[in-house]
Amino acid sequence: MILFFISSSSSIPKPPLPGSNTITKWKGNKNKNDPSSGLAPSSSPSSEEQKLVDDRPAPGSAAPVEAPTSNFTMGAIPATGKMNATFVTLARNSDLWDIADSIRQVEDRFNRNYHYDWVFLNDKEFDENFKKVTTALVSGTTHYSTIPKEHWSFPDFIDQDKAKKVREDMAERKIIYGDSVSYRHMCRFESGFFFRQPVMQNYEWYWRVEPSVKLYCDVGFDPFRVMAENKKKYSFVISLYEYAETIPTIWDSAKKFMKQHPEHIAEGNSMKWLSDDDGESYNHCHFWSNFEVGNLNWLRSDAYIKFFETLDQDGGFFYERWGDAPVHSIAAGLLLKKEEIQFFDDIAYWHVPFTHCPTSEQKRLENKCACNPKDNFDWKGYSCTTRWFDMMGMEKPEGYQDQKD
Ligand SMILES: Nc1nc2c(ncn2[C@@H]2O[C@H](COP(=O)(O)OP(=O)(O)OP(=O)(O)O)[C@@H](O)[C@H]2O)c(=O)[nH]1
Ligand SMILES: [Mg+2]
């Protein structure tokens, strides 16, 4: 039953943390300065994204500029070439072949033309084989970092007995990952700490990639550049309703934050998408965070950190089973203006069990898409994307009615 699949997983620059073990592997040139290897695919996105995508660099100018990330000024948009951005993956050594699959997808459809870096994070040290295989697959520079214990453990204010009882109860109720301690650490880490790892401090933009995901169309534009040039801070491809039993009190914590920190609540935010009664209750809509392209400075902002800390103190990562998807989504929905959130229709994507496949046939053909449009989740009853279009006043693509349930 799909409801059991929907929850998705998931800290401010502080001095490098003790125990943090960052290994950087600088790679050879790998044709990075060879213009012939930097041709952007000839795909041409259309519909509501056309305007955004039209700002992309001319084919051939997109990739080959090699710029050391340390030379970037945060917030500056380079006129051409690469942005200050990285892919980021949280994974275990045992995820190697599933992440290898994902990397291949991302490289073939996008990164072979851009050579962005890739950061791998793990609560244990990555083994040599993991590093060897992933370094061979990524066309940019790879970095491997071990997460410090403080970011992957129970905070001292958590009552262990209470947390254990919750896990036992959720196991009985067969809530997916309900009995898992590691899944909870993972969700808390993705909510509050991945962007605070020392290795992430070098970057302004991230694209999150999980094991075993697929990209079905050529991505013939640079999503980081599109985000920067259009003042976007967060993006999504799939949205849906969260499994309510994993987050019974998350909205109480969010309301507490709104009351304590009205200065951080954006005017013109997405409250209408999150709530059907002006903020009284949460409708469980969230962006599926196993895919994200976002701005790290936003996550490192006082507003986001205060939001995370308010939620964290309430203990719901352990006393319930809060996922990073609702955490990021509620934060984006409240702290950002709605126009700062981007729906990437052009990035066709699959993570079990849902697909985003562009509704427009023209778009699918132009971008060499291999997804079956019938699988597109956007307009199905369990998706929140219709609501997103309605709130944004965006016109739905032709043929969307045929893709409802
Ligand atoms: N290092 C590490 N990574 C983890 C651990 N658990 C999950 N991850 C990673 O965290 C991300 C989310 O975990 P998933 O197991 O994919 O969670 P999900 O997407 O909610 O559920 P699935 O439907 O199983 O994919 C993935 O990138 C995993 O590789 C862990 O214990 N250690
Ligand atoms: Mg996953």
TrEMBL record:
Gene3D superfamilies reported for this sequence: Spore Coat Polysaccharide Biosynthesis Protein SpsA, Chain A
GO cellular component: Golgi apparatus; membrane
MF-aspect GO terms: alpha-1,2-mannosyltransferase activity
Keyword Coiled coil listed: no
GO BP of this protein: cell wall mannoprotein biosynthetic process; protein N-linked glycosylation; protein O-linked glycosylation
Region described as Disordered: spans on this chain: 7-72
Keywords assigned by UniProt, alphabetized: Glycosyltransferase, Transferase
The keyword Translocase is annotated on this UniProt entry: no
Xref: InterPro entries: Glyco_trans_15 (IPR002685), Nucleotide-diphossugar_trans (IPR029044)
Catalytic residues, chain numbering: 292
Composition bias, Low complexity: 35-47
Top-level taxonomic group: Eukaryota
Compositional bias per record (Basic and acidic residues), positions renumbered to this chain: 48-57
Stored Pfam families: Glyco_transf_15
Similarity comment: family membership: Belongs to the glycosyltransferase 15 family.
Protein name: Glycosyltransferase family 15 protein
